[in-house]
UniProtKB/TrEMBL annotation:
Classification via InterPro entries: Amidohydrolase, Bact_exopeptidase_dim_dom, Peptidase_M20, Peptidase_M20/M20A_hydrolases, Peptidase_M20_dimer
Organism phylogeny: Bacteria, Bacillati, Bacillota, Clostridia, Eubacteriales
Stretches that traverse the bilayer: none
GO MF annotation terms: dipeptidase activity; para-aminobenzoyl-glutamate hydrolase activity
Top-level taxon: Bacteria
An example Gene Ontology biological process: folic acid catabolic process
NCBIfam families to which the protein is assigned, alphabetical: amidohydrolases
Name of the protein this chain belongs to: Amidohydrolase
Species per Swiss-Prot/TrEMBL record: Bittarella massiliensis (ex Durand et al. 2017)
Domain Peptidase M20 dimerisation: 206-296
Length: 452
């Protein structure tokens, strides 16, 4: 371990209380995507107290705190934490004001970002970095609360559902060369995971069937049943599954937002939220077309009207061609305290999605998970059981990885930038996102009623 590594670890240990207090505070004040105003305020305030210039209000609640003045020579590494939580009303620590709980552990990412900022701000550490570091908070990673997000889009406040997607669109990643991302995990067998696999692409859909009310027992023949249309559509999607190739890891899933008004009234207004995911863009486009056809089939068979609003979700994660800076960070922490580390290699694929995928399409992204949480993510049983692993370890890994990328004329970062192959640039990314936005409409077309 060299002197700078030692200083980084020492600084984070010395500030342990402040870092953990920040984590607990964010945990108890969870907020939903694009409205994480309190969370953002706390994050920005801390960076400003460290003397950083902070660009605030990016994609509504996001921010970038600059370790050194903007335009500093050399590569710029972004240390990224997410701001948002999940709408889980029945967690014991749900924020009563927002109905949100940190059951995906994003509060720990933000805490780690703050811990890294404390360590890298120490003058001798800062001087050892031949480039800049940006501490970035990103809104709205969880693709939930779609009505609210559609409202923001219509008001022109945020065009995409994912915060990082929106930040790419507005150019907030333009001065970043390498991104570092962290996520919480509940794996009790390991302390840290080098997460370098790919993930699914997805699109999100809001589907509305319009029918006609009637007495469900007295005159059902006078109604046009929107619930039947939706049921038929879902059956159609189920039958499409045999046409999906195993290697494309297609996932089609959704739920009813609205299923009708009463048991004795034919449902005339049924709304679903639906998601189509697959390993590649081509496979998502194929599955998405089949899902749209199935929804149309439900409408056509019953005579219901139909409206499908499709939003682009997230891009597939591109594995990083060189994670040696993270490996060096793990080795340094491991000298002090042996770590149980797992590596998920580039050959593996997860069927969930993240907007870190979008970042990885335009620049190299090094991602790691740390544990210290129990339960299952996205469930109301999530709890932090080891604050050292949940908050302190990722802070050290963030800071040490940034150091290893930027030390010695930033050779690590420069090498990574050279060997990384972007999938898209910002322009073609936005073009792709816009091409996935779309609306399908079918008028209601019931058969005429038979004469009494
Ligand atoms: Zn998450
Ligand atoms: Zn999540």
């Amino acid at each position: 371990m060299d002197q700078i590594e030692k200083k980084i670890i020492e600084t984070i240990d010395q500030n342990r209380e402040q870092i953990v207090a920040f984590g607990r505070d964010i945990w108890h004040h969870a907020e939903l995507g694009y409205r994480e105003f309190r969370t953002a305020g706390k994050f920005n305030e801390l960076l400003k107290n460290l003397g950083m210039e902070v660009d605030e209000g990016l994609a509504i609640t996001g921010a970038k705190g600059y370790l050194k003045p903007k335009g500093t020579a050399g590569p710029t590494v972004a240390v990224i934490g997410e701001l948002d939580a999940l709408p889980i009303a029945n967690h014991k620590d749900t924020n009563p004001e927002t109905g949100a709980a940190h059951c995906c552990g994003h509060h720990a990412q933000l805490t780690a970002t703050i811990g890294a900022a404390l360590a890298l701000s120490v003058p001798e550490v800062k001087e050892a970095l031949d480039g800049n570091v940006v501490f970035m908070s990103t809104p709205s990673e969880e693709f939930v609360d779609i009505d609210y997000k559609n409202g923001l889009r219509k008001e022109g406040k945020a065009r995409y559902g994912g915060g990082k997607c929106e930040l790419i669109r507005i150019g907030a990643f333009e001065d970043i060369d390498v991104a570092l991302g962290h996520h919480s995990d509940t794996d009790a067998e390991h302390d840290a995971i080098i997460m370098n696999c790919s993930s699914n692409v997805f699109v999100n859909k809001t589907v509305k069937f319009k029918g006609r009310k009637a007495h469900a027992a007295g005159f059902p023949e006078k109604g046009v049943d929107a619930l039947n249309a939706a049921e038929l559509a879902l059956h159609g999607i189920a039958l499409q599954r045999e046409s999906f190739r195993d290697e494309d890891t297609v996932r089609c899933h959704g739920y009813y937002l609205q299923g009708g008004d009463a048991v004795n009234i034919i449902a005339d207004d049924v709304v679903l939220e639906y998601c189509v995911r697959a390993k590649t863009m081509e496979a998502v486009k194929d599955a998405n077309a089949k899902v749209d056809r199935s929804f149309k089939a439900g409408a056509l068979a019953t005579g219901c009207g139909l409206e499908i609003e499709t939003l682009p979700g997230y891009f597939s994660t591109q594995p990083c061609p060189d994670v040696s800076a993270l490996q060096a960070a793990l080795d340094a922490v491991g000298e002090d305290r042996p770590l149980r580390v797992k590596e998920v290699p580039a050959s593996e694929h997860i069927t969930g999605s993240t907007d870190f995928g979008d970042v990885s399409a335009i620049m190299p992204l090094i991602q790691f998970y740390t544990t210290g949480l129990t339960g299952q993510l996205h469930n109301n049983n999530v709890e932090v059981v080891d604050e050292e692993i949940a908050y302190i370890l990722p802070a050290k890994l963030f800071a040490l990885t940034a150091y290893h990328l930027l030390k010695g004329d930033a050779a690590g970062a420069r090498h990574l930038m050279e060997i990384y192959q972007p999938k898209l640039d910002r322009e073609s990314y936005v073009e792709y996102m816009e091409s996935m936005l779309g609306t399908i409409e079918m008028e209601m077309d019931p058969l005429p009623l038979l004469e009494d």
